[in-house]
Amino acid sequence: MLQTLLNSESAAEADRILTICNACRYCEGHCAVFPAMTQRLAFTPADLGYFANLCHNCGSCYHHCQYADPHEFDVNVPRSMADLRLDTYEAAAWPRFLGRSFQNNGVWTALLTVVALVVFQLAAAAFIDPAVLFGNHGGNFYAVLSHNVMVTVFGAVSLFVLAAIVIGMLRFWRLIGAPPVKEIGLRDVAQAVHDAMTLKYMGGGADLGCTYPEEAPSKLRRLFHHLTFYGFLLCFAATSVGTLYHYGFGWVAPYGYFSLPKILGIVGGIGLVAGPLGLIYLKRRVAAPVNTEATRKLDAGLLVLLLLTGLSGLALTALRGTDLLGFFLMLHLGLVMGLFLAMPYGKFIHGFYRIQALVGYALEQRRGTRVIGAAAAPPQRQAAE
Amino acid sequence: MTRGDLQTAFDVLVIGGGNAGLSAAIVAAEGGRRVCILEGAPRFYRGGNSRHTRNLRGMHDAPTPVLTDAYPEEEYYQDLLRVTKGKTTEKLARIAIRGSQDSVPWLEARGVRFQKALSGTLHLGRTNAFYLGGGKALVNALYRHAERLGVVVHYEAPVESVHLDGDTCRGVTVRFAGSLATLGARDFTAQSVVFAAGGFQANIPWLKESWGAAADNFIIRGTPYNRGAVLKQLLDQGVAQVADPQACHAVAIDGRAPQYDGGIATRVDCVSLGVVVNERAERFYDEGEDFWPKRYAIWGRLVAAQPNQIGHVLIDHKAIGLFMPTIFPPERADSIEALAGKIGLDPQRLTKTVADYNAAVRDGRFDHTELDDCHTEGLAPPKTHWARRLDTPPYYAYTLKPGITFTYLGVAIDECARVLMADGRPSANMFAAGEIMAGNVLGEGYLAGIGMTIGGVFGRIAGEGAAAHAANAA
After folding, report:
1. What predicted TM-score, i.e. pTM, was given to this entire model?
2. Residues B88 and B66 grouped into a single domain
3. pLDDT tens by residue, A141-158
C-alpha cells in the first residue's frame, strides 16, 4: 500500500513526461501545472504529487502536444497526472487500509451504497411499524423516522467522515512536501478558493474553454461541474437552514414548497441531477486517452452516486404527500449515507486536495519560487544541484 | 472513403496544410471558393513545421494585449537586414512586416488564442506573439475553422507530380499513402493552386547535394514528411528559384535528439554560459557574442562545419539554474579530465583548452541578463561576454549536433504571392506561401518567429489571389 509517492510507478512516469515538458513549455498558458513546473529544474515525487492535484484533466495540453502518441516521446500529461493523483489519494487516506478502495473505486462505491441502502431498509423493516412506514403522513417524514434518530445517526457518521477528511488533508499536505501551515497567507487561501470555485483551470487558459470531451474547446464541462458542485452546495445549505430552523427557531419540518430549505433543496437537487448527467454524457464522449480505467471508474462512482442522491431527493419531495413517503425517505437517506461514507474514499476527496494544491500554488506564485515539495526528498536528477 | 466518392475538381487546391496553406485555404473558402487541402502527413503529424512553432513576429506601433511596447516597421526591417546580411527582397519583406500587424486579430477571429504575458527565457514579449498551447494548438484551430468553412482536407495525400502547361498549373497527381494507400494515385484539378508544401529538410540525399557527407549527421527537427517533392517538381519545370541550396535555419541541439521531429524540447540553451569545443577539443567560435535568442540560429551551421558535425558545450556548477532545463541529463564529472573521458575527447587537450580559456578570462560583473563585461583577453576565438572560469565542479557536458529546422531554397514569387517563372513572368494560376517561398525574404540567418509571419501573411495573400483567379476563370 502506498504511504509515500517514492515507490509510485506513476510518479516515475510523470517525472519522465514532465522533464520533456519542462524543456518545451509550450503549454505554460493552459493551467497551473506548467507555471508550477517551470519553477523547478527537476522534480521530487512530492512535487509531482502536487502537480497531479493541480491538474483538472482538461486535456488541452494533450491535444496541443507535438509529442503525444504516436510520437516516440509519448507525452500524455493528463493521463499521467490522473494516474498519480489516484496514488496521492491512496497514500493520504485515513485509515490507511481504506486507501486501497481507490484502486477499484467503482466497485467499492457501489458496494458501500448498496450496503447503506440495505441497512436503512432493513432497519426500517425491523424498527418501524409497517403501518407507519407505508402510511400517509402529509409530508411529515419525522413521523416515519424521528428527528433525533436522524440527527444521531448522521451526526455520528459526519464526525467520522470529517475526521477522515481532515486527517487525509494533513497527510496530503505532508505528502506533497508542503511547508508548515503558518506560512500560508489568507490571500493564498482566498486565491485558491476563488480559482476552485470558478474552475479557472477548466478554461484552457483563454475564453473558449478546455478541450473536453474532444479536441475542440468547449465550456460544457465547466458548466456541468458547476451545476454538480453548486447543486450539492445548495442541498447542503438546505439541510443546514433546516437545522437552523429546527434548533434556532423551533420551526419544525415539513416546510412548504416556497420555504427557504425547500427552494434550496429543489434547485440544488435539479443541479445534482443535471450536472452529473451532463458530466457522465461528456465522459462517455472522451475518445482521447487522457485518463485511465481506474480514474474513469473513480469519477463514475461519484457521479452516479450524486445523480441517485439528487433523483431520490427530488422524488421524495414530489411524493412526500403519498404513501410512498416512507420508502423514498429510507431510499434517500440510504443514498445520502452512502455518499457521506464514500466522501473520504472516492472522487469527492479531490475537491479538498485540489484546494490544498491551489493554496500551495498561490503561495509559490506570490513568492516566485518553489515552496511545495521542498519539505520532501531532494530531486534525483544531477542537473538540479 | 471509397473510390467513387472522392471529389477531385476544385476551385482552389492548396498543397500542404501548415500555417501558410491553412491561411490560404481559409481566405479562399471565405471568398466563396471550393477549396481542397492536400496534406502529405497523417493527421497527427499534419501542419509540417507549424506544429513545432510557438510564435509569430509581429509589427506594432503601440502595445497590444499580446505584444508589449512597439515594434515599428523600420526596426523590424533593420533586424531582418542584419540577420540576412542584406539577402532579402525589400519589397516582399516589407509586405510580410506590414501584413504581420493583422496576423494576431486574423488568427484570433479564427479560433487561435495567444498568451497574454510570457515567462520563459526568450524575452520576446515585445516582438513575438505566443500561441496559447503552441503551434499545434494553432494548427488544430485553423483546421477546425477550415472544415467549418467546408474546406475538404485529405491527409496522407503527398503530391507526386505537378502538371504544368507553360506557366499554368493544370493539376497535380496525389499518391495516397499510409492508411489511404489503397486509393492509389489520383489526379486533382483546380482553377488555381497554392503551393505551401515547405522546404526539403527531411530529404537527406538532397541536403547532401550541397552539404556533402556532413548531411548524414544532421538531425531534422520537424517531421520526416518535408521532403521537398513539390518544390523539386516546380524547379524542374521552369519555375524561378530563390536562395542558396545550403541556406537553412539550423540550430545546435542535443546530439541525442531523435532523427526526426524532436522539435523544441531538444534545445540546449547553455552555450553562452560555457565554452564549446569540437572533437579535437578546440574552441571554434565566440560563445558570448550576443544574447542566445539572437545567436541560437547560427550555431547549427557552426557545428555543421566541425569534424563529424559534433560540438560539446562545457559548463561548470555555476551555470546550473541559469538556463532552460534540458530533455536529457548532461554528462557530469568532478574534473575536466574525467569529463573528457565521458564525452570521448582527449583529456590532455581538453584540459589545456579549458586552462587556456580560464587563464584568458578577465573578471567582471557577471550578469546574464545584459551584455556584461566578463570577457577573455588574448584568446582566439575570444569569448566576449559572460566569460567565467570553468573552475567549480562538478563539470557538465552536452554533446551538440546540427538540428535543421527548414531549408530556404524555394520558388520566387511577386508581391501577389504569384509564382515567378524562370523568365521573370508571373504564373497565371500558381501561388506560393510559407517555407517554400520564405527564401524570398530570408536569404540567410533567422529572426525568431518570422517564419510564421511570412507563412501567415503570404498565405493570406496567396489565398486571396487564388480565389480571385478562380472566380474570374469560372
Report:
1. 0.95
2. yes
3. 888 888 888 889 999 999
